[in-house]
Amino acid sequence: MSTALDPRDPLGFDDLLSDEDLAVRDTVRAWCADRVLPHIADWYEAGQLPTVRELARELGSIGALGMHLHGYGCAGATAVQYGLACVELEAADSGLRSLVSVQGSLAMYAIHRWGSEEQKQQWLPGMAAGEIIGCFGLTEPDHGSDPASMRTNAKRDGSDWVLNGRKMWITNGSVAGVAVVWAQTEDGIRGFVVPTDTPGFSAPEIKHKGSLRASVTSELVLDNVRLPADAVFPEVRGLKGPLSCLNQARYGIVWGALGAARSCLETAREYSITREQFGRPLAGFQLTQAKLADMSLELNKGLLLAWHLGNRMDAGTLRPEQVSYGKLNNVREAIEIARTSRTILGANGISFEYPIMRHANNLESVLTYEGTVEMHQLVIGKALTGQDAFR
């Protein structure tokens, strides 16, 4: 009790973490500070991530790609350690965390969980090293929250499969070497591992975004893409396959959104101490302190929730509905923290000299991808009532 409260860790969250947890977090934090933070505002303003392949290789070298998976060159980290890494990545930029999430929790997880041994050996070591970038094709132009209605289809032609269709809002699409694509078949929805140099596959990049601007976002076009028989995941059928992957990605968001929130709160707190109005620092006004207190409260409650869910995932007891609790709460609170932080900076809050407006814009995408607010509310509502209100 002899030391002052740490305003960056007021509840002593770090005391819950092991030395290995802290080492993972600090490694990712240091890498982001060195390789991303000096450039991210310019990348965002320009609407591009110009060194994405180089960054992917570096992320592979520090073990951040597919880090919670085991074998095949993956780090085998705990779920909590993966979550801590997501916080640091998104504190730099949501687009960077999306790159890592899609690579590890969607594309790599799909192959690791549902792929054949040959598919795992062919793709996972290169993806873990960042030599191969992956993407995940589920969302379609007309079917976002309702993937069961997808129109992309795969039909047998002899021993081959022929894929046709379109996918939309695909992170990493135009820089990927492999795509995991979900399609309707006569046996239900199935997953396919598609090398992106296959004839008929193209991934035009989506431009003119107001959010996730430092992220590669693409459409996937499949025009008579012919694949061999062994390109399909051998066993999984139906939505069980893609939804299991989405649950992994949503878990990363539970943590990651808090990184953006932390960056905004710390910027606002430091600004309030140095910025003077009416003869004293902004931090000396009651309304400013009320905002900072409320934001700190929600940020640290979110961290405790994420940590709890991470421990459940490590114990093998985490349910999809519980992930919905985390995604719904933490992203909703993160975007409110970003908006409130902006008010403390006043007009300066919209300048890219500070990260707040960039984070706020990014969080608008995080709020709705991997399940909108409404979808997670209905997942929780069904769990509470037993009534399915989706249709």
The chain-level mean pLDDT equals 95
CATH level-1 class of the largest domain: Mainly Alpha
Tally of structural domains: 3
| Number of H- or I-type helical stretches | 11
| Assembly status | single chain
CATH-scheme architecture of the largest domain: Up-down Bundle
Question: What's the helix-strand series?
Answer: HHHEEHHHEEEEEEEHEEHHHH
* CATH fold-level name of the largest domain: Butyryl-CoA Dehydrogenase, subunit A, domain 3
Strand content: 5-15%
Domain Acyl-CoA oxidase/dehydrogenase middle: 135-225
GO molecular function: fatty-acyl-CoA binding; flavin adenine dinucleotide binding; glutaryl-CoA dehydrogenase activity
Keywords: FAD, Flavoprotein, Oxidoreductase, Transit peptide
Family: Belongs to the acyl-CoA dehydrogenase family.
Describe this entry's structure for a reader.
The chain has helices at residues 19-35, 40-46, 52-61, 79-92, 94-114, 117-128, 240-274, 286-315, 320-345, 356-368, 373-385; strands at 70-71, 74-75, 134-137, 153-157, 160-171, 178-185, 188-195, 201-202, 217-227, 276-277, 280-281. With 391 residues, the chain is of the alpha+beta class. It has three domains: 13-128, Acyl-CoA dehydrogenase/oxidase, N-terminal domain (Butyryl-Coa Dehydrogenase, subunit A, domain 1); 135-238, Butyryl-CoA Dehydrogenase, subunit A, domain 2, CATH 2.40.110; 241-385, Butyryl-CoA Dehydrogenase, subunit A, domain 3, CATH 1.20.140.10. The strands form four sheets. A four-stranded antiparallel sheet has the order 4-5-9-8, with helices on one face. It has a three-stranded mixed sheet with strand order 3-6-7, with helices on one face. The longest helix is centred in the middle third of the chain and has 35 residues, at 240-274. The mean pLDDT is 95.
